[in-house]
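Pasting as-is:
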Amino acid sequence: MNSSNPTLRVLHVEDSERDAMLLDRHITRAGYELVTERVDTPAALREVLSQREWDVILCDYSMPQFNAIAALNIMKEMNIDSPFIIISGTIGEASAVEAMRAGAHDYMMKDSLARLIPAIERELKDSDNRRARRKAEQELQLKSVALEAAANGVMITKADGKIIWVNPALSRSSGYSADELIGKTPRLLKSGQQDEEFYKELWQTIRSGNVWRNTLINRRKDGALYHDDMTIAPIRDSNGNITHFVAVEQDITELQHALAQLRSKNEELAMMTQQLWQASKLATMGELAASVAHELNNPLATVTLRVELLTMQLPDDSPMLQPLGVISHEVERMANLVHNLLQFSRRGHRQISTLDIRQEVANSVEFVHYYLRNRKIEVVTDFPSFLDTIQADRQHLRQLFLNLLTNASDAMPQGGKLFVRARNSTLDKNKVVQVEFVDTGEGISAEHKEKIWEPFFTTKSEGKGTGLGLAICRRIVDEHGGKIEIESEIGVGTTVRVTLPATNGDVETSDD
């Protein structure tokens, strides 16, 4: 084996040593140098998982003393997120669906391993992305805590000057609560002690992309004047456009009073003190402002997160959640994406509640907003002013809508329009709510329309889909006593119509 071949650490959860050896041989032929181990009991799995990290776990679905679902549960208990692929000779549709919902990343039959290497390489890439995202989130959490606890006031504004976030220190120095400041502009703090030329120079400096440093005399909520040593730095997006400004302030009122008293006693000594303090202050505040601007810009450019991801780091009962909710709407979508990804992976029995289907559709559209936008797909919604509520499991409903939105976008690789409509109707004299997803994509051939509901049938290229999407959609709709239909024509597009029983109950708010 060439020493330059990449090393792959493979853990087999398999009772057949022969089958494990066949898989190793298949992977080795693809150019990997293997480090492997085989286990077939829960105790053995726990032991090897605690001893070493594994690049990929290949698991038989059913063994005499073990099965894939139990193995997935052990990994969750141990907080292990290695790629998990089921290799089975007998797995059926229901078992495959159960395993995927339990957290398996892919599955395939032992007698058909053509997808094995592409699946492993895809999951390795996805695993790296998940680790990078977790690292970025942990770093951002530390920054969030630091900003919240900072003794200096910090304010973030949009490019037009609208305040979108302040930390507690700034609220203390100004006397205004975060709710009173957010949505306003810093003009709220103007004291009239500086002329318009002063503020004109400030805006010209930061809008040209430079850092502005100076001392402001502002007015507190109670009318008292206070001195702010201020540094304002621009934040740019990945295209170099200025999107926000971050201002770091230090209330130096008491220091100014002390200096005035010293000046009255000994003017020369006061001047020397001021010069020393000014030099120290400029160095410290310059480093802090540059660091804050850089650290806030990094998430924007590298992981397409923005400062609004501070929301993700706060506990559910934090009083800062409401004021942070008005931070940049586009960045808030990214916070919701992470949260929704976690929600979509949850397992358990169905939890039925009364839902507003318009809101659930809107949440799902928001979830794939960036994905659709990057594909140049325009979403057009059409909902009536009044729509009956439905009773459903919120997470299952979101999974249904997500699958349908993803399928529609895949049908429009060159972009297009996706119409999402809803209406009240009746079916067999019963009130129902109908939701339609209409795309302008490639359409489905008559030959394929006969098979689209079959589990594992897919028109996507090898390695791009499992063929379970529509099967899962149909199962979710069936479980809710509804109906799902598809109309399609090649070159025209596809309409998916979901019909669900209506109710008159009050909408129950989501916990997420």
